[in-house]
Design a protein that fits this description.
alpha+beta, Acetylcholine Binding Protein, Chain: A, Methane Monooxygenase Hydroxylase, Chain G, domain 1, six-stranded mixed beta sheet, four-stranded antiparallel beta sheet, 8 helices, elongated
Length: 347
């Protein structure tokens, strides 16, 4: 037996179908602009402030010829952003080679931060760096050098990351000793580094800015011993030229010129030694002053020999006076000039 719904049920079903049809038509009539309302744009986020600190544990291989210095140091980054990974993005800008070991990330709760308390992430690692160093050899071997460590985020500019130097905790270890050098000071500061390129960023024009932390280690060379060992060839050459004035001005003139020739060879050999140790520079240095004055003293001594030999037969007294005056001028002029240059460099 088949059951048919009653009349009242059929009426309710018809009313429901009519209602659904009207509702669908109303929805279809709504404009597209009203159906899809875009979500409001998020307000731009503030850059993450990162406190950066450095602790120097080793300083070695101060190589002037290769324009390099090597060092080991701990670096740490304190910040409130869990997604930020400074050990992956921060680079030592002036490094020739860099490696990181013992890297770790630790979270600290309820840390005072910008007037409140936040969860802070503490990233740290031990860096081994061979850094490029532009040596100032003007006063070598009494030079003072400033060794730099420059750390910068290679992926996030200053609109995303701002570095703040941890001045209170950044230091150099008391165990760091560099033979031949005295460590005078250590300073660290943060600043903005501006590059005249946008690196292709379509939202920027003209330049881009990155936050940087720079550490500076001031060292001074202990140069008295090095002065004697590095420039001994020039000093021996000068002594040879002084001895020529005590030889006979007549029959030993050839020996005098020969001694001056030996002084030239000694000076040239010493010059190659010094040049291989120092980087090429464009300014006049203490080493240049010693080299130039030594060659000048040798040439002056040869000229004195020639003049004395030429006037010896006709004017023997004048020849002896020229010889003695040449010795005084050469000896005291060389000593006074180089003494002044060395005193100024060592001061």
């Amino acid at each position: 037996m088949i059951y048919f719904p009653g009349r009242s049920f059929r009426v309710l079903l018809a009313i429901l179908l009519v209602f659904l049809g009207v509702s669908g038509a109303a929805v279809a009539a709504v404009p597209d602009t009203m159906q899809a309302v875009p979500p409001p744009e998020a307000a731009p986020s503030e850059p993450v402030k990162v406190k950066v600190g450095i602790f120097i544990t080793e300083l070695y291989d101060l190589d002037m010829s290769k324009r390099a210095v090597s060092m080991n140091f701990w670096a740490w980054y304190l910040h409130p952003d869990k997604a930020y990974k400074p050990l992956d993005t921060v680079e030592v800008v002036n490094a020739k080679a860099t490696s990181i070991k013992f890297s770790s990330v630790t979270s600290k709760d309820d840390v005072p931060w910008e007037g409140g308390k936040k969860q802070i992430f503490w990233d740290q690692g031990k860096y081994s760096v061979t850094a490029f160093q532009d040596w100032d050899v003007t006063n070598f071997p009494f030079d003072r050098q400033i060794l730099h460590i420059q750390m910068e985020d290679g992926q996030n500019d200053s609109t995303q990351t701002i570095f703040v130097a941890d001045v209170d905790n950044s230091k150099i270890s008391d165990t760091v000793l560099v033979p031949g050098w005295t460590i005078e000071s250590f300073k660290i500061k943060s600043r903005d580094s501006v590059y005249k390129t946008t690196y292709g960023d379509p939202t920027l024009q003209g330049s881009s800015t990155y936050s940087r932390v720079s550490a500076a280690i001031t060292v001074r060379r202990e140069g008295v011993r090095l002065l004697g060992s590095m420039f001994i060839g020039f000093f021996v050459a000068f002594c040879l030229t002084c001895l020529t004035y005590f030889l006979d001005t007549d029959w030993m003139a050839g020996s005098r010129v020969g001694m001056c020739g030996g002084a030239i060879f000694a000076s040239v050999g010493n010059k190659y030694v010094v040049d291989s140790y120092l980087p090429p520079v464009s300014n006049f240095t203490l080493a240049d002053a010693i080299e130039a004055s030594t060659f000048a003293a040798i040439i002056f001594s040869i000229l004195v020999v020639v003049v004395v030999k030429a006037i010896k037969e006709k004017r023997p007294k004048t020849a002896n006076w020229v010889n003695n005056a040449g010795f005084m001028m050469n000896c005291f002029g060389y000593l006074a000039f180089n003494g002044f240059m060395i005193a100024r460099a060592a001061g």
